[in-house]
Design goal:
Strand content: under 5%
Radius of gyration: 21 Å
Structural class: mainly alpha
Helix content: 55-70%
Order of helices and strands: HHHEEEHHHHHHHHHH
Number of domains: 1
Low-confidence stretches: 1-13, 17-21, 379-384
Shape: globular
Strand order of the largest sheet: 1-2-3
Mean pLDDT: 81
């Protein structure tokens, strides 16, 4: 690890005015890359609104509302002095666990899964918010143990922190979001300088637990996990979505059919074309070129995310950037992989592109905190 920046103690307000000249450190490229991806997501919401994009309650109008909330969240968090996480990280963690428990008690059930809380007519998937909360909590914990990153106790501590939200999300059940939490922890540990030996041992332990995890999965989850190996074995059941997604992708060709061009194509037969398989619709309508543009934008975004972490010179900054990048990369690999038939259908969203309010807002919060790190460039001592 490179030498960490010497921390200095300071008193700050919640929305502290950045130090003189720090607004010049605002990462415009990060904001532009995220904005471009969000606009493409809105285009997909437009084309996936069967009753008209401007009709009341359409996917597009709801997408606009969540887009506006995401911009507000991004700006507010960027203005927030992230160093206050030193004081509130433990309370935020407990609140996160409490909300996940509350979801299991009074949450909205859709298709047999109890994953959402309804507040003021808006439905939030708490597990999406939980991802960003855990990035901040783990980064705070690793910063506090910056001199003991190679110890097995650090790995055990991360495991103890991640276990409660992981189990609660699995109970909902939401296998995809639970796996994202694991990816976040692995990325934060690896790039912050944790021992590869102990991480390898932990990975082996997780593999050994696969039979136990398999035994607690719902029947539909097992069918999804098996169908990607041979979708044609159940073309009208578990393999139907994968087959239709692949037909849609192939029919898009190089340049695609144009926006709304998939309305009568293979993607129109997908029951979740605005969520799980939004990228299949994108490839059918915008073609291979459109897909390449999206991947380039993601690469640009991830480069800026990691650059902020590296420039911070602190374990907190590196761990937070690594956790954010791991969250985005894992979701891209699984979402795109399930369309290609390389991954099982798990319901993991594609950031910015998949329609879903909690997903875009939580991602905006993570990027806003990265902007706060870029502008302030230091972290305080943790109370962990």
């Amino acid at each position: 690890m490179t030498a960490m920046r010497i921390e200095r103690s300071s008193t700050s307000s919640f929305a502290a005015r950045p130090e003189s000249g720090s607004w010049r450190a605002f990462d415009i490229q990060l904001a532009v890359a995220a904005l471009a991806l969000a606009v493409i997501g809105l285009l997909m919401a437009w084309t996936n609104s069967p009753d008209g994009p401007l009709s009341a309650g359409s996917i597009f109008t709801r997408g606009l509302m969540w887009f506006a909330l995401a911009i507000i969240a991004f700006a507010a968090v960027a203005a927030f002095d992230y160093r206050w996480l030193r004081t509130f990280s433990a309370l935020i963690y407990l609140a996160n666990v409490g909300l996940l428990i509350l979801t299991l008690i009074i949450g909205v059930t859709i298709n047999g899964a109890q994953r959402w809380l309804s507040v003021g007519g808006l439905t939030f998937q708490i597990s999406e918010i939980s991802k960003v909360v855990m990035i901040g909590v783990l980064a705070t914990f690793l910063q506090a143990r910056r001199d003991k990153l190679g110890n097995v106790s650090t790995l055990l501590g991360v495991g103890m922190l991640i276990a409660p939200p992981f189990i609660l999300v699995m109970i909902q059940p939401d296998l995809g979001s639970a796996l994202v939490l694991v990816a976040i922890a692995a990325g934060a540990l690896y790039l912050s300088g944790a021992s590869l030996r102990w991480m390898g041992l932990a990975a082996g332990s997780v593999v050994a637990m696969v039979p136990v995890i398999w035994s607690v999965l719902q029947d539909y989850q097992r069918r999804r996990l098996l169908s990607f190996l041979d979708p044609s074995s159940d073309p009208q059941g578990a393999g139907f979505q994968v087959i239709q997604a692949q037909i849609a992708v192939g029919s898009g060709g190089i340049f695609g059919k144009g926006l709304t061009g998939g309305a009568t194509g293979a993607s129109s037969l997908l029951p979740v074309q605005s969520t799980d398989f939004a990228f299949a619709v994108l490839l059918e309508e915008l073609g291979f070129i459109g897909g390449i543009v999206v991947f380039l934008l993601f690469a640009w975004l991830l480069w800026r995310v990691m650059l902020i972490g590296w420039r911070s010179g602190t374990v907190f900054g590196i761990a937070f950037a690594a956790g954010t990048a791991s969250m985005i990369v894992f979701q891209i690999l699984v979402n795109v992989g399930m369309i290609a038939g390389l991954m099982p259908v798990t319901g993991i969203p594609l950031p910015f592109i998949t329609h879903g309010g909690a997903s875009i807002v939580s991602t905006a919060i993570a990027l806003g905190l990265l902007q706060s790190i870029a502008m302030r460039g230091e972290v305080p001592r943790s109370t962990w």
